[in-house]
Specification:
- By secondary structure, the protein is mainly alpha-helical.
- It is built from 17 helices and no strands.
- Among the domains are: 118 residues, no CATH class; 79 residues.
- The protein is 66% helix and 0% strand.
- Helix 2 runs antiparallel to helix 3, helix 3 packs parallel to helix 6 and helix 12 runs parallel beside helix 16.
- The protein is globular.
- This is Tetratricopeptide repeat protein 7 N-terminal domain-containing protein.
- InterPro entries: Endocytosis_PI4K-reg_protein, TTC7_N.
Length: 407
């Protein structure tokens, strides 16, 4: 009986780890009930921790628009947030969790503080989290997600703090610290998506007979994972560090692709093409595999690229560059990026006429239109007017389809 109970506990905890990695929060309450019915973890608050996480993440999923606008969430209008915070306060006051799960509770509380606009408290919680323990090789996949979220929460919290009474030196130090957090968050998030792909696409020994190709699971990245992927290059570009922003975009596009990173790669490729066409001249262009020129770095107040100054804690796997085609000039690289992006945008285009798909249709039209606009600029510079006319025809077809669906 003991071995049977032990096997059941391992099965339930493995299933919980999988749900936490795949962000399937709706499935967690049923597994938590089974675990509590079997009287596992009676001496600690593990079940309460999982309940708090599921409540918090479902609340965040329903308030993505508010999070993007940096609008604080209020407990009075968000009952799940209030319940999650209550559970976490109880857990932290009791102190019955092991160090591993205590770190997870601290990070969840950092999320609560951040979404409530209490950025100083969020930064303090991140400082207490043992980030080094989340990078060990034998840790579950979802720890990489926690690591990426911890770094981006810390970076965003630093950027949101008021600077009226801060000296210029301290402000520069804070900007550097937040950027280092964003770079680490991006690499950790990309590593997480790669590891998650392995666990989802590799069949289990016991399920291999039943299904050689298990169904792929849709990955909802959520606000903090999306921020972890994008914040580094957006921060650099916002501060006017165009060369280092372009370098960061090239770095992430060389990462081995995973299912969860497809929409991010599409946005990153379009952004890189935009930067190249608008800010890099033919004479100042540098190859994709090389670091930014020293002249560019000197103008941006840096001696080396930021990824060299702030090495990653968990590097993602990158494609080998041996034998690969390498663009020779700025327009060639931009057009190549846009053609790849156009193919991805066409494949992801929403053509459903259902009323609840109206917003998705509009977003897909805007994505495709922005790519075609940039392609027009790039092809016109090369005098490729025949190809440009084909691009314009594709644009008109897409717009006509959108108009027909609206009618």
């Amino acid at each position: 009986m003991a071995s049977r109970v032990s096997f059941t506990q391992i099965r339930l905890e493995t299933e919980l780890e999988r749900c936490r990695a795949e962000c399937q929060w709706d499935k967690m309450p049923m597994i938590i009930e089974q675990m509590q019915a079997a009287r596992f973890h009676e001496d600690d608050d593990y079940g309460t921790l999982l309940t708090a996480e599921a409540l918090l993440e479902e609340c965040l999923q329903d308030n993505m628009d508010l999070l993007r606008r940096a609008t604080p969430l209020r407990e009075e209008t968000q009952p799940r947030l209030s319940r999650a915070k209550g559970h976490l306060n109880t857990i932290l006051s009791r102190g019955r969790l092991t160090p591993r799960y205590l770190n997870e509770a601290l990070l969840l509380m950092a999320k609560v503080h951040y979404v409530q606009g209490r950025y100083w408290d969020a930064q303090g919680m991140c400082a207490r989290v043992g980030l080094e323990e989340l990078t060990l090789d034998d840790q579950p996949t979802y720890h990489l997600r926690l690591l990426a979220e911890a770094f981006v929460i810390k970076g965003l919290s630093l950027d949101h703090q008021t600077v009226s009474a801060v000296s210029r030196i301290r402000l520069l130090e804070r900007e550097e610290e937040s950027l280092s957090c964003y770079l680490r968050a991006c690499d950790a998030a990309l590593s997480f998506l790669q590891e998650l792909d392995k666990t989802v696409t590799t069949p289990h020994a016991k399920t291999a007979k039943a299904s050689l190709f298990p169904p792929l699971v849709d990955i909802d990245l959520g606000y903090f994972l999306q921020a972890a992927l994008q914040s580094a290059y957006l921060c650099l570009l916002h501060r006017g560090h165009l060369a280092q922003g372009a370098h960061q975009l090239r770095r992430v596009l060389r990462v081995v692709e995973s299912r969860g990173s497809q929409s991010f790669r599409k946005a990153a490729a379009r952004k890189l093409a935009e930067v190249l066409l608008s800010s890099v001249s033919e004479d100042s262009y540098w190859p994709p595999l090389g670091p930014p020129p020293s002249a560019w770095l000197h103008r941006e107040g840096a001696a080396a690229s930021k990824d060299v100054i702030y090495p990653t804690v968990k590097p993602p796997q990158r494609y080998s560059m041996e034998g690969c085609f390498c663009p020779q000039d700025v327009v060639e690289e931009a057009v190549l990026l846009l053609l790849i992006t156009e193919s991805m945008a066409s494949g992801d285009a929403v053509i459903s006429r259902l009323p609840d798909q109206a917003e998705a249709r509009q977003a897909s039209l805007q994505d495709a239109t922005s790519v075609y606009d940039l392609l027009t600029i790039g092809l016109a510079r090369r005098g490729q007017y025949a190809m440009l006319s084909e691009v314009c025809m594709d644009t008109h077809k897409l717009q006509d389809t959108h108009i027909v669906m609206k009618v």
